[in-house]
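re: ur question from earlier - yeah i can do the single chain one, its not a big deal. heres the input i used so u can compare w yours
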Amino acid sequence: MKTREFIRHCDDARIVEAIKAAESRTSGEIRVFVTSRRRKALIMERATARFEKLGMAATRDRNAVLLYFAPEERGLAIVGDSGIHEKCGPGFWEEITRDLGAQFAQGNFTDALLDGVGRTGDALALHFPRRPDDQDELPNTAQRD
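and the output i got, formated as tokens:
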């Protein structure tokens, strides 16, 4: 699938609202990134590099999560920083990635993204509840290249 087609089928406003709602319950941070580039590196390597480039490892509690999508390759990856990854483990991220992939295959792009954001927000809220002094450390808008 072409990236433009993927983006056209996604409702950015609903995704941003889902991120805001999820982050209202946690000190964690969630970002969505969609790439149009095809590269030889494995998708997880690219997602991890993008995580670093977006400054997501700089959150106070190391509890940021990136949902990374490469529609032209039909690929996706989820990268959780060390704080949240220690709490959830790789099985949690693999399960979400598998479920989102199945939803994308059915053409449910926005719903899949909303599900991924919601489930990530639930995990963050469980392990990193919102604090009185919490600040939104990262932008909520979906990023693209």
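The two ends are 16 Å apart (CA to CA). not sure if urs matches, ping me
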